[in-house]
Write a structure and sequence with these properties.
By secondary structure, this protein is an all-alpha fold. It has three helices and no strands. The chain starts with 11 loop residues before the first helix and ends with a helix.
Length: 158
Protein backbone atom coordinates (compact mmCIF):
# COMPACT_ATOMS: atom_id res chain seq x y z
CA UNK A 1 0.00 0.00 0.00
CA UNK A 2 1.88 3.03 1.15
CA UNK A 3 5.60 2.87 0.85
CA UNK A 4 6.23 5.24 3.65
CA UNK A 5 4.51 5.40 6.93
CA UNK A 6 3.27 8.69 8.31
CA UNK A 7 5.57 9.99 10.95
CA UNK A 8 3.71 11.39 13.88
CA UNK A 9 4.68 14.50 15.75
CA UNK A 10 5.97 16.27 12.61
CA UNK A 11 2.81 18.16 11.78
CA UNK A 12 3.26 21.94 12.02
CA UNK A 13 0.03 22.17 14.05
CA UNK A 14 1.39 19.86 16.65
CA UNK A 15 4.71 21.64 16.84
CA UNK A 16 3.18 25.13 17.08
CA UNK A 17 -0.53 24.96 17.95
CA UNK A 18 -0.91 28.77 18.41
CA UNK A 19 0.31 29.57 14.88
CA UNK A 20 -2.20 31.32 12.69
CA UNK A 21 -1.78 32.06 9.04
CA UNK A 22 -1.40 35.71 8.33
CA UNK A 23 -3.00 36.92 5.11
CA UNK A 24 -0.65 38.51 2.61
CA UNK A 25 -0.89 42.24 2.42
CA UNK A 26 -1.42 43.73 -0.98
CA UNK A 27 0.90 46.63 -1.74
CA UNK A 28 -0.81 49.98 -1.66
CA UNK A 29 -0.85 51.52 -5.11
CA UNK A 30 -1.09 55.17 -5.74
CA UNK A 31 -3.83 56.33 -7.99
CA UNK A 32 -2.64 56.57 -11.53
CA UNK A 33 -3.39 59.64 -13.49
CA UNK A 34 -3.87 59.56 -17.22
CA UNK A 35 -0.58 60.27 -18.96
CA UNK A 36 -0.36 63.77 -20.31
CA UNK A 37 -0.05 64.05 -24.04
CA UNK A 38 2.93 65.82 -25.48
CA UNK A 39 1.94 68.58 -27.82
CA UNK A 40 2.67 67.68 -31.41
CA UNK A 41 4.06 64.22 -30.64
CA UNK A 42 1.81 61.37 -29.72
CA UNK A 43 4.49 58.69 -29.65
CA UNK A 44 7.66 58.73 -27.64
CA UNK A 45 10.64 57.59 -29.67
CA UNK A 46 13.07 55.21 -28.11
CA UNK A 47 16.74 55.88 -28.59
CA UNK A 48 18.56 53.11 -30.33
CA UNK A 49 21.87 52.14 -28.88
CA UNK A 50 24.65 51.54 -31.35
CA UNK A 51 27.19 48.84 -30.83
CA UNK A 52 30.84 49.71 -30.32
CA UNK A 53 31.79 48.49 -33.80
CA UNK A 54 29.09 50.62 -35.43
CA UNK A 55 30.16 53.70 -33.47
CA UNK A 56 33.81 53.11 -34.36
CA UNK A 57 32.98 52.65 -38.05
CA UNK A 58 30.77 55.74 -38.13
CA UNK A 59 33.33 57.90 -36.33
CA UNK A 60 36.21 56.72 -38.50
CA UNK A 61 34.24 57.39 -41.70
CA UNK A 62 33.32 60.84 -40.40
CA UNK A 63 36.98 61.51 -39.56
CA UNK A 64 38.18 60.50 -43.03
CA UNK A 65 35.45 62.55 -44.69
CA UNK A 66 36.51 65.64 -42.74
CA UNK A 67 40.19 65.06 -43.60
CA UNK A 68 39.30 64.56 -47.29
CA UNK A 69 37.25 67.77 -47.31
CA UNK A 70 40.10 69.72 -45.71
CA UNK A 71 42.61 68.43 -48.27
CA UNK A 72 40.26 69.20 -51.16
CA UNK A 73 39.69 72.73 -49.87
CA UNK A 74 43.41 73.27 -49.45
CA UNK A 75 44.08 72.11 -53.03
CA UNK A 76 41.34 74.43 -54.29
CA UNK A 77 42.81 77.37 -52.38
CA UNK A 78 46.30 76.65 -53.75
CA UNK A 79 44.94 76.54 -57.28
CA UNK A 80 43.12 79.84 -56.82
CA UNK A 81 46.26 81.38 -55.30
CA UNK A 82 48.32 80.34 -58.35
CA UNK A 83 45.69 81.85 -60.66
CA UNK A 84 45.81 85.06 -58.64
CA UNK A 85 49.60 85.21 -58.87
CA UNK A 86 49.46 84.67 -62.64
CA UNK A 87 46.89 87.47 -62.97
CA UNK A 88 49.11 89.77 -60.89
CA UNK A 89 52.08 89.06 -63.18
CA UNK A 90 49.96 89.67 -66.27
CA UNK A 91 48.59 92.89 -64.79
CA UNK A 92 52.09 94.17 -63.97
CA UNK A 93 53.26 93.31 -67.49
CA UNK A 94 50.32 95.16 -69.06
CA UNK A 95 50.90 98.12 -66.76
CA UNK A 96 54.56 98.38 -67.76
CA UNK A 97 53.65 98.04 -71.46
CA UNK A 98 51.08 100.81 -71.18
CA UNK A 99 53.56 103.04 -69.33
CA UNK A 100 56.20 102.45 -72.01
CA UNK A 101 53.69 103.25 -74.77
CA UNK A 102 52.55 106.39 -72.92
CA UNK A 103 56.16 107.52 -72.48
CA UNK A 104 56.86 106.92 -76.19
CA UNK A 105 53.75 108.88 -77.12
CA UNK A 106 54.79 111.69 -74.77
CA UNK A 107 58.29 111.67 -76.32
CA UNK A 108 56.89 112.05 -79.84
CA UNK A 109 54.68 114.93 -78.73
CA UNK A 110 57.58 116.62 -76.97
CA UNK A 111 59.85 116.25 -79.99
CA UNK A 112 57.11 117.52 -82.29
CA UNK A 113 56.55 120.60 -80.13
CA UNK A 114 60.25 121.39 -79.47
CA UNK A 115 61.72 120.79 -82.89
CA UNK A 116 58.65 121.40 -85.03
CA UNK A 117 58.67 117.93 -86.54
CA UNK A 118 55.51 116.43 -87.92
CA UNK A 119 54.57 112.81 -87.97
CA UNK A 120 53.00 111.33 -91.03
CA UNK A 121 50.28 108.73 -90.81
CA UNK A 122 51.43 105.20 -91.32
CA UNK A 123 50.88 103.62 -94.67
CA UNK A 124 49.13 100.29 -94.70
CA UNK A 125 50.73 97.42 -96.58
CA UNK A 126 48.80 94.34 -97.72
CA UNK A 127 50.66 91.27 -96.53
CA UNK A 128 48.34 88.72 -98.09
CA UNK A 129 46.02 86.21 -96.51
CA UNK A 130 48.40 83.34 -95.90
CA UNK A 131 49.58 82.67 -92.42
CA UNK A 132 53.23 81.92 -91.97
CA UNK A 133 52.65 80.25 -88.61
CA UNK A 134 53.79 76.67 -88.22
CA UNK A 135 51.65 74.56 -85.93
CA UNK A 136 53.74 72.49 -83.59
CA UNK A 137 52.93 68.82 -83.43
CA UNK A 138 54.38 68.41 -79.94
CA UNK A 139 51.88 68.07 -77.13
CA UNK A 140 52.25 70.56 -74.35
CA UNK A 141 52.93 68.82 -71.09
CA UNK A 142 51.05 70.29 -68.17
CA UNK A 143 51.76 69.63 -64.55
CA UNK A 144 48.95 67.73 -62.93
CA UNK A 145 48.20 68.19 -59.30
CA UNK A 146 47.54 65.32 -56.89
CA UNK A 147 43.76 65.23 -57.39
CA UNK A 148 44.00 65.22 -61.19
CA UNK A 149 46.31 62.20 -61.00
CA UNK A 150 43.83 60.36 -58.77
CA UNK A 151 40.90 61.18 -61.08
CA UNK A 152 42.86 60.02 -64.16
CA UNK A 153 43.87 56.83 -62.36
CA UNK A 154 40.22 56.08 -61.43
CA UNK A 155 39.10 56.82 -65.03
CA UNK A 156 41.78 54.42 -66.26
CA UNK A 157 40.39 51.64 -64.07
CA UNK A 158 36.85 51.97 -65.38
Amino acid sequence: MAKYNYQYETSPRKLEPEYQNKPKKKPVTKSKKAPQKVKGKSKIRKKRKMSFEAKFFFNSMLFFAIIFAMIACQAFVKQRYKEKENLKKEYNQLLTNSMVAKEANDDTRRIASEYGMQTKSATLIDLGTTDYIEVSSDEVETQENFWDKIVNWVKGIF
